[in-house]
């Protein structure tokens, strides 16, 4: 796919969706609801090995709920992670490709069954290949601190991401989604990789935030966005896996910092304890609250809205319904 064609696909989808496309929601949350056990450094990527049929089922549930964009199950799927499980390099790369294949197959199956149904309000979804941060691979919560230590530099981060990026692009997704980036250094690594590898499909880079003001590293979003704004290969920027009550103020901030499309997909508001590996009780948004705030987020400039951890297909259904009713 040429870069211009890819951009057109994304822009057309946003336009068909009424100016704001809906992406899917929490993946691990939904896999667990179907009985998957993912308490593992590979997290939801473990299902690529053990339960691929559940991955496709979850994709279909999000499409049925109204998702215009599916994100693949590759967030925590990395070559080093698979190698540490005793898999070969070839097996690891095959699993990365499978993450895209499962999403594409689900999208095509759903579209074939709905495209000719009278009154159907679905769009043909796009598939975004998920590329989680280095901290997600470490599985130590550092994607929420941005503290990778003194031994991690730009070269190391590019080396970490490069082969996964190449394999995922070869598998044929429509988009790339760099997710939960916690610092300027990793954002720079992603930008340089897109250029060095001459990537020809659209991409977005999303940061996380633990305080609603800065990236987890403490760097300002202005510093981080300055890196992204210089790149013609980064087509959208935003925030994911941050508490939803941060989104309104972050959207106002982001509108002043960039002219790129803005993506927001917060978690439910529950807080993940990366060391204890469990969710801590905290103030969270229910589906009814997402239904109220989604149109506000769109009106403040969001072009893609979805959910992250602990959101479900019912959350996405509420968001999709609210956006359609108010567009």
TrEMBL record:
Statement: the UniProt record of this protein carries the keyword Transport: no
Coiled-coil region: none
Cofactor(s) the protein needs: Zn(2+)
Tagged with keyword Ribonucleoprotein: no
Binding-site residues for Zn(2+), renumbered to this chain: 241, 308-309
Domain Hcy-binding residues, every copy: 9-323
Keywords: Metal-binding, Methyltransferase, Transferase, Zinc
Highest taxon of the lineage: Eukaryota
SUPFAM superfamilies linked: Homocysteine S-methyltransferase
Pfam family, one: S-methyl_trans
PANTHER family noted in UniProt: HOMOCYSTEINE S-METHYLTRANSFERASE 1, ZGC:172121
Protein name: Hcy-binding domain-containing protein
Organism listed in the record: Hibiscus sabdariffa (roselle)
